[in-house]
C-alpha cells in the first residue's frame, strides 16, 4: 500500500518521525523500525521464504519467514501477526520476542540500503502457508541444522543466525522492556 508509513528512529531507537514505505529505501535509507520473524513447527523446522521477484529490496532472496515494518503506534508483535496473515495466510495468537535489540545495515548490489532496528520474533505454527505472490515467490521448511547451508540467504537472516545459535525451542523469550523506545507502544 503506497500510503503505508514506517517509523524513523534515532540512534537510541526513539521515534523521530515517519516516512512513506514506498520511498524510505534508497542509497541513504534512514534508520527505521522493522521486525523479523521465524515460523517454527513442532519438529523444530523453520519456514524460509523467498522474497517475491517484484519486490524493490532484495528480490528473490531467501530469508526468515516474514519481515516487515510496524505502522506508527502499532505494537511490533501486532505487526508480526498482521504481516504473517497478509504474506503467508498464517494466523497466530502470539509471537515470542527473542532478539529485542537486533540492528543491521545491508547494501544491495544496486546501492539500495536496509538500515533497521529490527526486533526478532519466534512463532510456533503447524501447516503449510498460503503465500501472497506479491510478497513471497516460494517457501520451504528447513531443518535448523541445515539453515546456514541454504544458498542466497538475506544478510539480516545470516546476522540473526549468528545470535540465534541454538535450536528454536531453546531461544529464550526476551524482556519486552529491552525493545527500542519506538517499539514500546
Walk me through the structure:
The two termini are 23 Å apart. The protein has 185 residues and is α+β, with helices and mostly antiparallel strands. It has helices at 21-24, 76-88, 155-163; strands spanning 5-9, 15-20, 32-33, 35-40, 46-51, 62-63, 66-68, 96-99, 103-107, 113-117, 120-124, 136-142. Strands 4, 5, 6, 7, 8, 11 and 12 form a 7-stranded mixed beta sheet that branches. The chain has a 3-stranded mixed beta sheet with strand order 3-10-9, with helices on one face. A two-stranded antiparallel ribbon has the order 1-2. The protein is built from 3 helices and 12 strands. The protein is globular and about 40 Å long. The chain is 14% helix and 30% strand. It has one domain: Nucleoside Triphosphate Pyrophosphohydrolase (Alpha-Beta Complex), CATH 3.90.79.
List the helices and strands and how they pair.
Layout: E1 5-9, E2 15-20, H1 21-24, E3 32-33, E4 35-40, E5 46-51, E6 62-63, E7 66-68, H2 76-88, E8 96-99, E9 103-107, E10 113-117, E11 120-124, E12 136-142, H3 155-163
Parallel strand pairs: 3-10, 4-11
Antiparallel strand pairs: 1-2, 4-5, 4-7, 5-6, 5-12, 8-11, 9-10
Amino acid at each position: 500500500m503506497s500510503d503505508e508509513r514506517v517509523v524513523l528512529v534515532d540512534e537510541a531507537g526513539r521515534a523521530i518521525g515517519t516516512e512513506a514505505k514506498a520511498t524510505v529505501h534508497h542509497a541513504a535509507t534512514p534508520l527505521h523500525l522493522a521486525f523479523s520473524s521465524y515460523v517454527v513447527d513442532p519438529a523444530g523446522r523453520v519456514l524460509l521464504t523467498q522474497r517475491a521477484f517484484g519486490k524493490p529490496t532484495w528480490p528473490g532472496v531467501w530469508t526468515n519467514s516474514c519481515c516487515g515494518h510496524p505502522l506508527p503506534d502499532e505494537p511490533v508483535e501486532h505487526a508480526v501477526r498482521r504481516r504473517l496473515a497478509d504474506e503467508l495466510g498464517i494466523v497466530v495468537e502470539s509471537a515470542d520476542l527473542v532478539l529485542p535489540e537486533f540492528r543491521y545495515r545491508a547494501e544491495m548490489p544496486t546501492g539500495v540500503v536496509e538500515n533497521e532496528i529490527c526486533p526478532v520474533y519466534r512463532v510456533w505454527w503447524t501447516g503449510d502457508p498460503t503465500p501472497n505472490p506479491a510478497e513471497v515467490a516460494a517457501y520451504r521448511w528447513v531443518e535448523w541444522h541445515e539453515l546456514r547451508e541454504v544458498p542466497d540467504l538475506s544478510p539480516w537472516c545470516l546476522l540473526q543466525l549468528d545470535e540465534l545459535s541454538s535450536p528454536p525451542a531453546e531461544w529464550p523469550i526476551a524482556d519486552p522492556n529491552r525493545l527500542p523506545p519506538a517499539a514500546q507502544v
